[in-house]
Amino acid sequence: MPPRRHFLFLLSLGLVAGIACFSSGFDPYYLDLLIMVGVNIILAVSLNLISGHTGQFSLGHAGFMAIGAYLSTLVTVFWSDSLLASANEKLAGFAASPWGQNLLFLLALLTGGLCAAFAGLVVGGPSLRLRGDYLALVTLGFGEIVRVTFQNTETFGGALGMYGLPDHTSFFWVYATVACTLFVIGNLTDSTWGRGFAATRDDEIAAASIGINPTRYKIIAFVVGAFFAGVAGALFAHFKMTIVPTGFDFTRSIEIVVMVILGGMGNTRGVILAAILLTLLPEFLRPIAQYRMVLYALLLIVLMILRPQGLFNFRFSRKKSA
Amino acid sequence: MEQILQQLLNGISLGAIYALIALGYTMVYGVLRFINFAHADVFMVGAFLAFFLGQNLPANSIASTILVLLAAMTGCALLGTLIERLAYRPLRSAPTLNVLITAIGVSLLLEYSGQLFLGANPRTFPPVYPSAQLTLGGVILSGNQLLVIGVTAALVLLLQLVIYQTKIGAAMRAVSLNPDAARLVGINVNAVIAFTFALGSALAGAGGVLYAINYPSIDPLMGLMPGLKAFVCAILGGIGNIPGAALGGLILGLVETFVGGSEASTWKDAVAFGLLILILLFRPAGLLGKPLPEKV
């Protein structure tokens, strides 16, 4: 029911804007947690489009995130500095004003997202002819190459990373982006394209035989998923105000994959719940911090054996042929 | 010239270690068709077993080196079969993706338990093996390199013998061709899979010990990078193909050593993965693999 989704989208934007007015009164600890939850929701939902809806296992989501994080600083740091220092008084004054800063941040988010989407196209195009394990490896390799590339780029601080980025990410920005992500991905998967994604996931050969081009749908999924991962990366960078290449390694990708698996592949609500749970869980487990990661790993194994459809997937599990 | 020869030698000894790990990946992929992500951590466990045993043995002796190697191999073989029995066997008929994720889970479990029980700080590996050097016309051949190359060559030959000359080897080949048909002719598929895991893990254990002797600082996350790279080697040579894994190991070892010795040394890690992407795009079956036609 698209009208309902449009309505919900507008409602949630209004709600986010309303809550954001009071966000300065929140306890900073909880506000930070809320922002991390939001960023992780965007990451998990965007990976869910690629892995859950389209069935392409990707281990390189952190790579897209890194591209978004680093390249968004082109706008907020490099371009913004040159604007502020520009001879044109009017322009410099506007760039320094809150409106100008927010506009710049919006541009930065879009830059990060578009660059990541472009990377998605570049990797996706040729490599999506591969399947399953092989695709997982190419995406893994891609993520590592992105990390090493940033590690070796002096403009972006090399191995030390970037410090002192402007603090743009607020409650409003994160949750407005979450609403946009859910709206766009939700509409996409309910459209004819969504049928194409599902057909590609369920049986590529059968899909191709009835005239659906699986490669096309895989690329669309990759580009859209990468876009939102890039936006999430940009939000993350301007929230932490620090980015280091090692923050976007293989382990980070795995973390996002686990959120998707735990929520149930292709089940958006479940994935959102899992993203919330997995962001908050480490905080709750603080008293037994040293056992935390061991529990996390055990949970993953036990879950795959006992409940492969995901923790929050209560629909009937679809039978899969071997 | 001497420098090139020296790098060649360093590359071969690094490649030999990669090859040992790659063999385990390739064998497991051959019978089960999935990437055993936990393999890299079995390698780490091998190094740690050798570490604890090596501390209590006389240093600088060939006998203790052999003892340490054998112990690590046995321990890892047991660990490998245990992992297969508890984590992978219940998922025998599940989609590959689920098994892959379970493998990632096992890998994380081993890494984090390692950090929890052994501590996250790197430890210095005891000098069990005598350090000696041989200078041949300006090229330095260290005892470690001799050990690595010798042990790897011996193990690869032994493996080749097991796979092509024994009954269990024939059963392994049968299962990798077609598990259902193998079961029909009376092969105990589960036993063969368990044996494959034991064999592969023993090789990873040996790799772990050799790695630790060469780069004597070990920690619970030490398997991560060599493991990923060994997997690249397995793909490079053609996954499921044993000589291919050895060849892939040598190629990657050499390429990495030469890149590492050049001005672009910080790009070393990217080269391995770039190579992986290239090979998958242009020859997904690997250098020695046969491309399989797609069946509907």
Task: Please explain how this structure is put together.
The complex is a heterodimer of chains A (322) and B (296). Chain A has 322 residues and is an all-alpha fold. Chain A has helices at residues 2-22, 28-53, 61-84, 89-96, 98-127, 132-151, 171-190, 192-202, 204-209, 214-240, 250-263, 268-284, 289-306. Chain B is mainly alpha-helical and 296 residues long. The radius of gyration of chain B is 19 Å and the shape is globular. The chains are: A mainly alpha (322), B mainly alpha (296). The interface between A and B is large, with 38 and 44 residues.
Q: What's a concise summary of this model?
A:
By secondary structure, chain A is an all-alpha fold. Chain A contains 13 helices and no strands.
Largest sheet composition of chain B: 2 strands, antiparallel
By helix and strand content of chain B, what is the structural category? mainly alpha
Q: Please write the string of helix (H) and strand (E) elements of chain A.
A: HHHHHHHHHHHHH
List the quaternary state of the chains. Answer: heterodimer
Integer tally of domains of chain A: 1
The CA-CA distance between the termini of chain A, in Å, is: 34 Å
Task: Kindly report the greatest chain-chain contact and the residue count on each side.
Answer: A-B, 38 and 44 residues
Percent helix of chain B, as a range, is: over 70%
Low-confidence parts of chain B: none
**What level of helicity do the residues of chain A show?**
over 70%
Q: Name the overall outline of chain B.
A: globular
Tags for this model:
heterodimer; A: 322 residues; mainly alpha; 13 helices; 75% helix; 0% strand; disordered C terminus; B: 296 residues; two-stranded antiparallel sheet; two-stranded antiparallel ribbon; 11 helices; 4% strand; globular
What's the structural blueprint in terms of helices and strands?
The complex is a heterodimer of chains A (322) and B (296).
Chain A lengths: L1 H21 L5 H26 L7 H24 L4 H8 L1 H30 L4 H20 L19 H20 L1 H11 L1 H6 L4 H27 L9 H14 L4 H17 L4 H18 L16
Helix pairs in contact in A: 1-7, 2-7, 2-10, 2-11, 2-12, 3-5, 3-6, 3-10, 5-10, 7-8, 7-10, 8-10, 11-12
Chain B lengths: L1 H31 L6 H17 L6 H27 L7 H23 L4 E2 L8 E4 L2 E4 H23 L1 H11 L1 H6 L4 H26 L2 E2 L5 H14 L4 H20 L6 H15 L14
Antiparallel strand pairs in B: 1-4, 2-3
